[in-house]
Structures are given as structure tokens and as C-alpha cells.
Hints:
Order of helices and strands: HEHEHEEHH
Largest sheet: 4 strands, mixed
Strand order of the largest sheet: 1-4-3-2
Strand content: 5-15%
Helix content: 40-55%
Shape: globular
Amino acid sequence: DGCVEGRRKPSSEWRFHRDIYSARPEAGAIVHTHAPFATALACRGEHIPPFHYMIARFGGANIRCAGYATFGTQELSDEMLEALLDRCACLMAHHGMVVFGRDLRRALALAAEFEALCEQYWRVLALGEARLLPEVEMQQVIAKFRDYGRQD
């Protein structure tokens, strides 16, 4: 609810944690990092396009980059919430990344997977222009991820 408990000041990023938990009831844990590859890509201020089918793991045909706003502000939180629509991860322009999952174990695993994907995209860009998967393929992969890893 944004109320502070204890003697210590909260993280400057408390707003976006509060707002993600409020807007996304499926979020049980949030991981925010300044991981090197995600941060490098975030400094481009661009979405990550469907260069690899694992982009769909995060909820859509791309991974959005939230617009830049000063850290710790409501504006940053608002930008992130928009970038996270139908997604569980986004880049934060000139900042880093945020990922959420149903619990801390899942959120940490997704953050590691996201950073690996960012490294792969960074390497693809070093080779030249990325070849992208078509929208119809990404929609098929997104549908497959809806029950990915679930056992009956």
C-alpha cells in the first residue's frame, strides 16, 4: 500500500513495486536489476523484437522498453506499467529491467532467462541486422507458452 514500516527508508523504486503488485495480481515477486546486457539494450530505448521464439516466454511478440523517466518517480512507474501490459518483463529506458513471477523462485528464473535473451540479442546486433520471426509464428509460440511446463 506504499506505507513504510521500520526505521529504514524504502528503496527509491518502491512506487513501481507497489504499482505492479496492485495492477498485476498474478505478480507474487518482482526482480529489478541493472544487469549488463539488459541495461545496454535499455540504453537504446527500443523494444526487443522477435529475433528468437523465447521472446514469447515473457508474454508477447516483443519485449517492450518503457519510456525514460527519472528513477523513483511516479512517471517511471506509469511508463513501466504501460510496457508491462500483457507482459511479465520489460526494459526500462536508460535504466535496466524489471521482471515479475508468481513467486520469488519464478521471478529470479525469469530474470536470469531475460538477461540471457538480452545477451543473445546484443550478440545478434553485433553481427548486423536481426532476422525476425513472422507474427503468425510468434502467435503460435505465445499460445504454446500458455501451458508451457504444466503437467496434468
